[in-house]
Structure formats: structure tokens, C-alpha cells
From TrEMBL:
Organism of origin: Mycolicibacterium sarraceniae
One Pfam family hit: Glyoxalase
Annotated ranges, domain Glyoxalase/fosfomycin resistance/dioxygenase: 5-30
UniProt superkingdom: Bacteria
Residues in coiled coil: none
Protein name: Glyoxalase/fosfomycin resistance/dioxygenase domain-containing protein
């Protein structure tokens, strides 16, 4: 299965800080850097549906960012 971005929308108050954050995050590094605050560690989320695996971080503007593997 290919990795794809399903959807996202971004509002930011500091373009330079957000650009650095998203350039790093969307570069698919495996590091929790770039000012991300971990909200939920990677784990299955069966309450969403079978095969849903996700992790959640907060960006510098406080937006909840979710990275998902949808194996269903």
C-alpha cells in the first residue's frame, strides 16, 4: 500500500515557525522534533474502525495533527 496524505487543513499565526515544523513533519522523519508536543503515542484506534493506527501531536499553533495508517 502506498503512503498518501488523506486530508489536512492548516491555520498558522507564525509562517516561518509553521513552515519549519511542517517541512520536518511532512518529510516523514521518525523523530519527535520540530516543536511537536506528543498528544497520543502511536497505537491502534479500534474505536475508529479495524486497522486504524494513528499518532497525534500538537503543532506550534496548537493544532492537533494526526498521522494515520489505515490498514482496513
Amino acid at each position: 500500500m502506498e503512503a498518501v496524505i488523506d486530508h489536512f487543513g492548516i491555520n498558522c499565526s507564525d509562517w516561518a515557525k509553521s513552515k519549519e515544523f511542517y517541512d520536518g513533519v511532512l518529510g516523514f522523519t521518525r523523530q519527535m522534533g520540530f516543536g511537536a508536543e506528543s498528544l497520543h503515542a502511536p497505537r491502534p484506534w479500534p474505536e475508529y474502525h479495524p486497522g486504524y493506527y494513528g499518532a497525534f501531536v500538537r503543532d506550534p499553533d496548537g493544532n492537533n495533527i494526526e498521522a494515520v495508517f489505515d490498514g482496513a
